[in-house]
Structures are given as structure tokens and as C-alpha cells.
Amino acid sequence: MRTMATAPTGSAQSLLQSWYPTTTVPLTIHSFPSLEPVSLEHWSTQHLHLPLRRDLLYRAICYEGDSHRQGSASSKTRYQVAGSHTKIRPQKGSGLARAGTRQSPIFRGGGKPFGPHPRDFSTRLNKKIYDQAWRTALSYRYRRGELIVCQDGMDFDFPSMLHHIPKRGINKPIHDAYIRKYMTGILKELQLTGRTLFITAGRRRGNLHQGMLLAPRLGRVLDLADVDVKDLLETRKVVMERSVLRDMISQHQSDLVSNIVIHGAAHKGPPLGVEMLPKQ
């Protein structure tokens, strides 16, 4: 006798859905400098939840380090040293060792044998591997709770007392010490212990840059164009603006975006943040 398969019940359907892989992760957007949560967004796991790949991070950091080497060291050979190239003494009869020209490497002021010359230290790395290393570094920070995303325009105001200090005849070192103490108190209140990296985009944030410049032991401020993979990994926490994260992901997702057009369309990659809970 033929039997008919029964349709899955509601509990079975929910059980099947629970086994589906997660495709998005939540990301909280904070206000600055209070770091109070403002909104909640969905981001793709391909952006902020990649598995840790130490090999990719190592290759990316080596690639960046090689690209930053100037390779401008230069030394003169014996044929580039100025002066007469005649023999300094006869071959025999002087009682001294045989010698050629004054430019010989055995004499002081002579040429340098096998010395450094200008060269290019940069190495090659596939762009898709480099982009995946960027998102791996962001994912590592996200999973550890060390990635803080704030609203655009990240800056704060100094107390009015700090603006009146120069007018009262107090010298600049004391004024800088007040700012350093104020910055230490703010970061301690926000539980940003250790060194913190602030990443901004667009115009320069005057007070934030000035405060972190006077307190380098607390961290530093970088523009998006100056950030590397190594910068994302060497500090205790990373605080960035929302537009910085969007630009950072959009610039480093070549392995997720297809250049092949099929039926008039190409895969543009996962969306860059979908708002779940709007601003209150």
C-alpha cells in the first residue's frame, strides 16, 4: 500500500529554520562621547563575522610593512668616489703592502663594497586576499567586543575653564597638562582603558585630535586613508564613525563583488548595514 508523506508541522518547520546558518549579525551604533546606544543595525557575516585567519593577517601586515619601506639607502662604490684614480705608490720597493687607488674600500673615505643601493622593497599580494584580511581584522575586533561604532562627527567640547587658562597668563605646558588630565578622565569614565584607536573621516576633529596628540599613551586618532590592517590590531579598542565602517567595507569586498554580468545584473555583495531599530 502506498503511503503519503505528511507535511511538516509548525514545530518541525521552526526546527529546520533554527538550523539555517546565520547570515547577519547585530551592530550597535553609539553616540559620542557618551557612548550611549542610539540604534541597531544588521550587518552581513561576510563583513563582521569571518573566522580568524592568522595566515591572512600575517600576509597583509607583511605586505603593508614592505610597502612602507622607503628603500632610499645608497652608498658609493669605488668608481663613484671623487678624486684621482691613479696608483698611490709603486707596486714594489716601498716596503708597504700593495695598494691601488685612494678609492679602494680598504682606505678610509673609499668606496663601500656590496653597499646598499636604492631599491623597491614592496611585495605583491592578491587584492582579494588583502580585502579578506581587512574584514578578518574587523571581525576579530567585533567578536571580542572591541569594535565601537559611533555616529558621524565624532568630537567633544573642552570645558570652558581650559579656554580661559591661556588668558590668565598660564604657560603652555600647564595648559597641555590640564588637557591631558581631562582626556585621561574621559577615557577612564568611558572604560576605554589602554590605548584606543579613533578613526574619523572627512574634516579634522579639532578637540579630539588635540587631546589625543597631547596624550599619546592613551591612543591616537587616524583618518580613514591612513589606517592599515596592523592599526586595527595593535590597540586595546577601536572606535570609528559609522561612515568610516561603511567606506572601509565597501573598499575591501572585492572577493564578494562579481564583475561578471549575468542577465544584465552583477552580484554587488551583501548590503552595508540595514537598520533594525531606528533612532529614538
From TrEMBL:
Q: Does the keyword Ribosomal protein apply?
A: yes
Q: Give one GO term, molecular function aspect.
A: structural constituent of ribosome
Task: Tell me which UniProt keywords the record has, alphabetically.
Answer: Ribonucleoprotein, Ribosomal protein
Q: Which GO terms describe its biological process?
A: translation
Question: Does NAD count among this protein's keywords?
Answer: no
Per the record, which residues fall in region Disordered?
67-99
Q: Which Pfam families does this UniProt record tie to the protein?
A: Ribosomal_L4
List the GO cellular component terms.
ribonucleoprotein complex; ribosome
Protein family: Belongs to the universal ribosomal protein uL4 family.
Its protein name is Large ribosomal subunit protein uL4m
